[in-house]
Structure formats: C-alpha cells, structure tokens
Design goal:
Layout lengths: L1 E3 L4 H13 L4 E4 L15 E4 L6 E5 L4 E5 L4 H10 L2 E2 L8 H4 L7 H6 L7 H4 L2 H4 E7 L5 E5 L11 H5 L8 E8 L1 E2 L3 E8 L3 H12 L7 E5 L9 E8 L1 H14 L7 E4 H12 L10 E7 L5 H9 L5 E5 L4 E7 L6 H11 L2 E6 L2 H6 L8 H14 L15
Parallel strand pairs: 1-3, 2-3
Antiparallel strand pairs: 4-5, 5-9, 6-10, 7-8, 7-9, 11-13, 11-14, 12-13, 15-17, 15-18, 16-17
Helix pairs in contact: 11-12
Keywords: FAD, Flavoprotein
InterPro entries: FAD-bd_PCMH, FAD-bd_PCMH-like_sf, FAD-bd_PCMH_sub2, FAD-linked_Oxase-like_C, Oxid_FAD_bind_N
GO molecular function, one term: FAD binding
Length: 395
Amino acid sequence: MRSYEPEHADAAADLVRDAAARSERLRLVGGGTKAGIGRPAQDEATLSTAGLSGITLYEPAEMVISALAGTPLAQVQAQLAERGQMLPFEPMDFSHLLGSTGTPSFGAVAATNNSGPRRINAGAARDSLIGVRFVNGRGEIIKSGGRVMKNVTGLDLVKLMAGAWGTLGLLTEVTFKVLPVQERVATLVFPGLDDARAVAALSAALGSPFELTGAAHLPAGCGDALARTAMRVEGFSDSVTYRLGELTKLLRHFGAPEIVEGEAGTDLWTHIRDAIPLVEPRDAAIWRISTAPDRGPALTAAVAASRAARWFYDWGGGLIWLATPAEGDAGADAVRAAVKASGGHATLVRAPDSVRAAVPVFEPLSEPLMRITAGLKAAHDPKGVFNPGRMYAGI
C-alpha cells in the first residue's frame, strides 16, 4: 500500500488532486491512535499529516492557538501549560482503550470532535474550534473561520468538519479558543450509590448554581469495589471551598462525600476521560452511548437484561461507556434497541474487524439524514477519495 506524507498544505493539495484524478482512495492518518474506530478501511493508500507539524499561532492574551494538523496534541498542551492555559474540552486519549501506538494529533481532535468530562461545562471540541484549513476532495485548499468567535450565515464549515472523521476533507491546520487553568480543582466523591440514585445526585448538582466541571458515576466493580459518584469543582480556592460546602449540604440525603484533590483527583478524571475502567478485558467490545441522563440507568439495564455488560457514566449520566462480549454482533441488537427506546445514539468504539464490517459502527441515520450526508460527501469529496465507508457504507 502506498503512503504519502506531505510537508506542507500545497503538497497535500497536489497529492489529493492526483489521487482524485485516478480515483485512488485515501485513508487519512494523524497519530494513528483512533485507526480502529469506524468501519474497516476500504482504501488503497494512506495520507499522513505527520509532516504537517508545528504551532503556527499562539496569542495567550487572546486565548487562541493554531497548529498544523499533525502537531502532537501533547506539544500543544505543553505550550499552553507554560502560560497557565488549557484546551477547555479535555480531549480523550483513545490509545489505552484501543491498544494503539502513536501520538494523538491536534488535527484529529477537531476531526473527531474529541471531548472529555469537561464537556458538560465548557462544551465540546467543536464549540471551541473557531478556524480550519483543509483540502477538499478536488485538491482545493479551503479556509473557514479565523481567530475570533463569529456568527455564521450559511453553511458553517468549521463545525461541519468537526466530527466528520476525515470523510469530507483533510484538515491541515486548526484553531481553538483556550481557557486559563483553574487555581484549585477538587472533587466530591459519594460512595455506594446505585445508578439511579447516582444520576439523581448528579442531576441535582448540575442543576444547582455551584458549577460542576465533571460529573461521573463508576458503579461497583468498575475500577473499585465500591461505587463512586464524582463531582468536580474548579476555580479560585475560596470559591471552591464555598461550593464544596454548599454541594455537600444540598446532597446530604445521598451520604457523606470525600473530598479528593491533587494527584488522586487528576488520576480519577484521567481514568474517566480515557475509559480506563473498561480497558480490560481486551477482547470485549466497547460502546459509547449518549442519551438523556435520567434515562441512562434504564438503558443500561435493558442491555444487561439480554447480555453480559459493564458500564460507567460521564456527563451527569448522559454519556455511557459500556463493555460487552464481542461475540456475534457485539451487542448491536441489544444496544440499538435500548437506544431506540430511550432516545440517543451509540457508537461501536472497539470491536474486531469482522464485527465492524457487519454491523453499523456509527448510529444509523434516517433516510432524510442519509440523503443530506451523501449530498455533503458528494459536494466536498465528489470522487470519494477520503476515508471511504469509514462512517457509513458507500459514503
């Protein structure tokens, strides 16, 4: 299989133009840590962004950073940390869950809309993404957005590219708004709650004026023998102290919480962010399910009624990470039925190639949405050059 690694956007555009001319299908690769997500590859060559590396703009006072798509995410985060800043949405590192090697890239954060526990407070990656440069399927270089937030009239290409998984274009440069690192971070951990009571506690806390930046529940056996319900609070130290006290009073009917800070708190949220409690066993299939928080416990119970399953909740119960045996359809029928009954959508994040080829990996689209999706693909990538079939068969 051929492999291309352009060192600048013009070279990438030339490669794509040539590939389109001979109908060569390209697999777009950043750091390679998410290569196992999606339907099995249906390509003839790889196009890597590894040669497109470097921070191109950093304005700490304006809280904005731009970098070429192949720039290691760790490099960007280290640069931000030097000035006491961070990416607001806490992107996940999939390498633990997928057993992949390589280094997560900055462009892939945008391409996959990669958002972690802080999403409930700061929004998703797409909410902080304010500018992109990309090469479309015709080999044209497109720029959309800029260095400031603006209202958009018409098709917002910045948001369209976020979460498209490289099916509409090759990102060459991305620009994000950033936020200051908070002075103090502390987490209330309530022990021993079942799923329903945990979600009720998280909902009460999220509905309060005390501003959580993380809200998760780890059932018993998911990393610890005792269930843990975690609520993260960040800000100036005096504010954090006050809010912890008020939350403890508000939630007194759910028990007496422990306050976790420092390295222990960082490790807890890193484990939640990277789905570490479900990494083992390696042969289990992993689903990422979004639903209304108050419907999460019923959804997981419905899946567990038909097959073995383990899970935990993030985003106040609205995000469910679920592991189930990969045999057969990896639980697709059970998961899709539960999601249909509860509302939401599900993505099969980890499963053998044979399963990912046989069952829908991303949430199946209605006929009208599929027509729109196919139309967008045809408009941006008329020859079907980029990541063919990765999200949906034939697209």
